[in-house]
Design goal:
- The chain is mainly alpha-helical and 142 residues long.
- It folds into two domains: 81 residues, no CATH class; 47 residues, no CATH class.
- The protein is built from four helices and two strands, in the order H-H-H-H-E-E.
- The protein has a two-stranded antiparallel sheet.
Length: 142
């Protein structure tokens, strides 16, 4: 994983990494391997990269030396499937309900994943959303 090991020189693709990291087995239907319904490894690794950058900036602002982080899709897959414990079997016991929030949508309430974490004393939250395809496809000047 990452910069060392047998995958070090390979490029990562979310759907390909899901197989050797065990996600295809966890998500299987009968004998057929499965896949996550979204590119979760790509998204989660991106969020971790953003968090690492913000932590490094905060540390630099406090006068600490800059930090670096090495991230990989395989490392993120291991972290996600282990529930942070290293035990892949616990993945089956993780339920999404505590992480979901229902927001008013354009036509009906929409259930979405709530934002993760907090920033100091601030707890991020969604205030509204729309149904897919309801908003017009246009750019707005800021």
């Amino acid at each position: 994983m990452g910069e060392t090991g047998p995958w070090a020189a390979r490029r990562g693709f979310d759907s390909v990494v899901q197989c050797p990291t065990g996600i295809a087995s966890i998500e299987r239907a009968g004998e057929r391997p499965g896949a996550l319904p979204a590119q979760v490894l790509d998204h989660a690794t991106g969020y971790l990269a953003a968090a690492a950058a913000l932590l490094s900036l905060a540390a630099a602002r406090r006068g600490e030396p800059p930090r670096s982080a090495w991230l990989s899709l395989a490392g993120t897959a291991h972290w996600l499937t282990s529930g942070g414990t290293g035990d892949r079997e616990q993945e089956r016991d993780v339920h999404p309900d505590p992480h979901m929030v229902t927001l008013p949508g354009a036509a009906r309430p929409v259930r979405v994943v709530s934002p993760p974490g907090r920033a100091g004393d601030l707890l991020p939250r969604w205030t509204s959303t729309t149904d897919l395809g309801v908003d017009s496809a246009e750019f707005t000047r800021i």
